[in-house]
Amino acid sequence: MEGFCHHKAYITKRQQLALLDDLLKIIKAAPFYTPTMPKTGRPFSVQETNCGPLGWVSDKKGYRYQATHPVTNAPWPPIPKSMLDLWQTLTSLSQPPEACLINHYKNTAKMGLHQDKDEDEFTAPVLSVSLGNSAKFRLGGLKRADKTQSIELKSGDVILLGGPSRLAFHGIDRIIKDSSTLITDQTNLDAGRLNITMRRVTKLAKV
Length: 207
Ligand code: SIN
Ligand code: MN
Fold this sequence. Notes:
Jelly Rolls, six-stranded antiparallel β-sheet, four-stranded antiparallel β-sheet
């Protein structure tokens, strides 16, 4: 799909370990929690937390962005510098992302086909980094019923949903267990997968 970009093995092993270290500190300050579906209250199979000025949350009241953690009520920790640098390099935008969602997939977790459309700005791309076990990512079109393709996302891969693909349907079919050794038992993350997704939420200022 036009505007979709898959940078395979973009982040070196050394950078992945440094990023994991930053994320473990974030998770200490802003622990993972289990979001629930609007209306039904059904729990997600992924756990989530955020960093940055705005975090994406979901509960019975709906999907939204907010400045504080829904369980601790504390402001989200800042986005690590390495992620901000990555945003600037790959998007060429001078204005930073406002949201950085961290998804934790145990090996049995998945994410249904959806669009990222809770933002007010769709000209900025969605940038997302994979760490740990590989995932089978499904990319569709602008309509739920459009044809889809399966793409394997490995630790260190970066994808961008930009241009026409900004609002493409996407999801995670499954995690491939034992496909990476990056996330160990010591991290208490169940040797699964982390996905770190940055987005612009409010309109970009005209410059
Ligand atoms: C998401 O769409 O929020 C996550 C995608 C991924 O885990 O790669
Ligand atoms: Mn998404």
